[in-house]
Amino acid sequence: QQYLNRLRNTEPLLRSFLHVSQNVMSEAEQIDRKIDRNEQLGPLAGVLIGVKDNICTLDMPSTGASRILRNYRPAFDATAVRKLRDCGAIIVGKTNMDEFGMGSTTENSAFQVTANPWNAERVPGGSSGGSAAAVSARQCVASLGSDTGGSVRQPAAFCGVVGMKPTYGRVSRYGLMAYASSLDVIGCFGSSVTDAAILLQAIAGHDRFDATSSKREVPEFTSQLEPAEFLDSKPLKGLRVGVISETLGDGVDSGTVSSIQAAASHFEELGCIVKEVSMPSFSLGLPAYYILASSESSSNLSRYDGIRYGNQIAAEELSSLYGASRANGFGSEVKMRILMGTYALSAGYYDAYYKRAQKVRTLVQKSLKAALTDNDVLISPAAPSPAYRMGEKKNDPLAMYAGDIMTVNVNLAGIPALVLPCGFSEDGPSGLPIGLQIIGAAFDEAKLFKVGHIFE
Ligand code: GLN
C-alpha cells in the first residue's frame, strides 16, 4: 500500500508507468494468507517489480510504447516475468520506454514523456527510462529493462540507480519484443547492487523457449556479497582494474571525467591495481552498432503488418493495408531505423555497410576480450554526460546516438556490465547523478556484483 501511495503521488510528475496493475493488493493479500497458513514463501514474496513495456505480461497490455501495439494483450508471460512471479514477486505495472527500445531519452514513446526524478526538466535516459525512474523514485523496489545498446545502463546512470546488463544469453529473451536479436538482453534495475543481484538470480538461466539462452549454470550471486562489516581494509587486493582511456577524452563532460577518476582512486584504496588501457577501436563501435541494430530491427519489425497485431488501418488492397497500418502505427524514429536498416542490407550496399559493420564488431569483440585477459574488469563512464534537458537532442538524432558511445561496445561483444552511482555533476546531491560502468568477461556477472558491492 505504501508503494502504491507513493506511486500515485509521484506519477503525475514522473509518468514512468504506461499501465499500473489492478491486482497488486489482491496479490499481496494472497501472500498474507500464505504467511498465516505458514506456507513456504518464494524469495521475492511480495516484492513490487516494474516491467518494461516491451516485455510481455499476461494480465497487462504490452505495447513496447508503440501505437502499432496499442491495446495488445499477450497470451503469455515472458520467461523472465514468469520466473519473477514464481518467486512470489508482484508485477506492479508496465514502464514507459522509447518505442521498441529505439532511443536514449524515453522521448520516443508514442504515449508519454517520463521525467527524471532528480530534476523533472531532464530526461531519465532510455530506452528503459520508465524502469529507471520508477526505481529511483521508489515507485517500486526493482524493475526489468532491456539493453540492446545501453538501455539499462545509461538510464541507471541518469537516474542514480544500479543497472545490470547481463551476458548475452544469460536471461531468456522469450517474450521480449525483438529489437536487434543478436544484441538484446533483459537486464535489472535496483537501488543497490544486492537488489540487482537478487533480481538477476531470479530471472537468469536456460529456457527451452529461447535457443540462444545459455545452458551455463547460474552461480549464487548474492551469497558472495559480504556485508560491509566483514570486509578487511583492502577487500579487492590484487584485482586488476583497467580504465579505458578513450572514454575519458574529448567530448566527455568534465564532471563525469573527474567522478570516474575519483572512482579509480577509490579502487586503488580498496587494494586494486589500476591501470589505463587504450582501446583504439573503441569509437568504431558506435557506427557499427547503429548499422547492425537498424539492420536487424528492419527485419524484426516486419511482423508488425497490421494483420497479426493491434493497430489496423483498413484498406482495399493488402499492400495498402500494410502501408497505412505501418504509417499510422510506427513513430518517426522507428521509421528512420527501418529505412536505414533496409538500406544497409540492400544489394549493392550490403558489403559497404552491413558486412563492414560485422567486421568492426569482431574487432571490438577481440579488443575487449584481450583487455579482459590483461585486466579483471574494465571501467568507464556509463554516459559522456549526466541527464540532459528534455527536447535538447530530440531533433538531432546524431547527437543522441553519440551519447551511446560508452555502452554499445559491450553489446557488440555480448559481455556483462554493471552501472552504479559514483558521484554528482556538482558537489553533493544538488547535482545530477553520474554512473560508473564496470565491464567484465562473458558470464562473469558474479565478479561484477562483488566488485560493485564493495565499491558501493
Ligand atoms: N539508444 C540505443 C538505441 O537507440 C540503445 C537502445 C537500447 O539499448 N535498446 O538503439
Helix-strand blueprint:
Blueprint: H1 2-14, E1 17-20, H2 24-36, E2 48-52, H3 79-86, E3 90-95, H4 129-136, E4 142-146, H5 153-159, E5 162-165, E6 186-190, H6 193-203, E7 240-244, H7 254-269, E8 273-277, H8 285-300, H9 318-329, H10 332-345, H11 351-374, E9 377-381, H12 397-402, H13 408-413, E10 417-424, E11 433-439, H14 445-455
Parallel strand pairs: 2-3, 2-4, 7-8, 7-9
Antiparallel strand pairs: 1-3, 4-6, 5-6, 5-10, 9-11, 10-11
Glutamine (GLN) binds next to loops.
Protein architecture, described:
The protein has 456 residues and is of the alpha/beta class. It has a domain at 2-224: Amidase signature (AS) domain (Amidase signature (AS) enzymes). Helices cover 36% and strands 13% of the residues. The radius of gyration is 21 Å and the shape is globular. The model has no long low-confidence stretch (mean pLDDT 96). Bound molecules: glutamine.
